[in-house]
Amino acid sequence: MTSVSDAAIYIVTNRSVLQALSRSRITDYDAIVEQRELSKLMNDIASLNQSIHSIELYTDRYELFPKLKEGRIYPIEGLESQRWFKPLADMDNGWVPKHQSVNGEQEFVSYIHSLLNLHGKTVGYVKVNVLIDTVEQLLSDRDGLLLVLDSGDRIILQKNVEPYAEVLDEVARDATLKQTYAEMFNTYQTVEKDGKQYLLILSERSSKHWRLAYLISSDFLYTETKRIGLFVMALGGMSLLLSIPVVYFVGKKIFKPIDDIMGGLKEIEKGNFLFRTKPHFIEEFKLISENFNKMAAQLDQTLKELERKNRAKREAEIKTLQHQIAPHFLYNTLDAIHWKALDYKAEDISYMVSQLSKMFRISLSGGDMFIPLRDEMEHARSYMNIQRARLGVNVTYSENVPAEIKDFYVPKIMLQPFIENSFKHGFPDRSNQIAKITVEAKVKAEDLVINIVDNGIGLQSGWDQKESKGIGIQNVQERIKLYCGPAYGVTLCNRSQGGTAVHIRLPIVQNIKEKIPSDERKKPL
Question: How far apart are CA 164 and CA 223, in angstroms?
Fold first, then answer.
């Protein structure tokens, strides 16, 4: 029904159709061309939908012009003479119950939609026809009376009417369901006629506000129930007789694979993770056996992996102890360079060395993976100071971060790679443009959101973050997902006012020892 109504709606909203019908003055030639195009459009749509038999157009537009013999374009008088058209005269669209075709050779159920031109004037009606046989094929072949009702509870189609012709008057009048039953949905009601009882079943409305009404004799229902009762009793007796040998056989087969699995569990308990159970021909036990073998293999693999990680951890601890002296040596060396530069009055070199020393101190941060946001911002600020001093360019770097957010912990060395990308790639011609880079942070939906925006040239056309080979971007993205979970990460996009925007989403961590909740790892990015 939806596809049928959609076909009519497509025609009445087709732009070319509306434009053609809105022309006030046409010649004989124009009338022939319009009729051919309309007939072709209706035939094409009907051929694309197997449930549609034909599409007709009723209009008085071509009354004074030659008409196509093979077209399905008729005057509106042909509709107004039909009794079923009266309820639709004041409606934009609606369904027509079972009726004869124009030539009287076929029976249809049709959908009619008014056709308006671009000036809002009704110039005709589109009628989409569906054969009764096509609709009846969709209905179940039952012994009772089956009624198809539209949104106004009018009977659009009825099946098996003859045996229930008399009782039909009790539930419907003038081809419309009585008010008593029209307000009932998804229920049943007993109907009496000449001392006989009938069961009327009313369905819910569909998405198109159609529904079914099913009327059946109570005697027929009881007959079927008795037949089912006898069948169930016979089946129960046979099942009882067959159950004894079957239970014995099945029980014997059940205990053997259970014993095998219990033996396997004892082997696992002893530490023998190489033990495997044999497959069983019963599907359930075969599945249990396969899962048991997978479990044993995974346990074996897990223990090996745990042993490897512990070994790697011990090696890493040894290397950490060996390299603890390196940061102190680096700080002392940079400090010596700083003071030596001051002796020679090279303030710019001294300034750059002090900024570099800050960057190294924050980067190492005692081996911690998370540092306060204020330290991370200082790291990025030191990098920008070095770049300004090194290149001597005009760069405006600003920060907009509330004080209460600066104590949140974030993965370290997270801002500098993106600021570096903005500085290197966003401003290729630094002589004619004042570069502006801004870092913002805020709490949004229980997450920490950090934005890095610039006024550069933006991302290249066709740039894809997933296919980006930038080491800095990939490094930060992988570290955030590793430390915080797959729900968090980085996205890059062009700004509407020009430049690039980097959006970093992180969990709120107020204490370096606090753990990230597992449910936050599952939230979508």
Answer: 18
Asked if 189 and 202 touch (Cβ cutoff 8 Å), the reply is yes
Rg (CA), the chain: 41
- Assign residue 392 a region (left: φ > 0; alpha: ψ between -120 and 50; beta: otherwise): left
The burial class, CB within 10 Å (0-12 / 13-18 / 19+), for 205 is middle
Secondary structure element (H or E) that encloses residue 109, with its range: strand 107-116
Q: How far apart are CA 155 and CA 169, in angstroms?
A: 12
Q: What is the pLDDT of residue 320?
A: 47
Give pLDDT tens digits for 85-111.
Answer: 877 777 788 888 888 887 778 888 888
Q: Helices H, strands E: what count in the chain? A: 14, 19
The H-assigned helical ranges of 49-158 are: 77-80, 132-136
Give the tokens for residue 495. Answer: 């700004």
**Would you say 205 and 211 are in contact if contact means Cβ atoms under 8 Å apart?**
yes
Indicate whether 156 pLDDT > 50. yes
pLDDT digits (tens, 9 = 90+) for 226-283: 788 888 888 888 888 888 887 777 766 666 677 777 777 777 777 777 777 777 666 6
Reference 94, options 128, 119, 50; nearest CA is: 128
Q: Which residues pair with 500 in a beta bridge?
A: 494
**Lowest mean per-residue pLDDT among 48-62, 341-355, 461-475:** 341-355
C-beta of residue 490 within 8 angstroms of C-beta of residue 504: yes
Which tokens sit at 77? 């008088």
Q: How far is CA 467 from the centre of its chain?
A: 24
Gap between the Cα atoms of 23 and 20, Å rounded: 6
pLDDT by residue (tens digit) across 407-435? 999 988 888 888 888 877 877 776 667 88
Residue type, 349: I
Exposure on the CB side of residue 41, measured as CA atoms within 13 A: 23
CB burial readout 221-245, b (16+ within 10 A) else e: eeeeeeeeeeeeeeeeeeeeeeeee
Cα distance between residue 454 and residue 502, in whole Å? 9
Question: In the beta sheet, which residues pair with residue 214?
Answer: 146, 201
Burial level of 482, CB count in 10 A (0-12/13-18/19+)?
exposed
Asked if 437 contacts 384 with a C-beta cutoff of 8 angstroms, the reply is: yes
Q: Is the pTM of this model over 0.85?
A: no
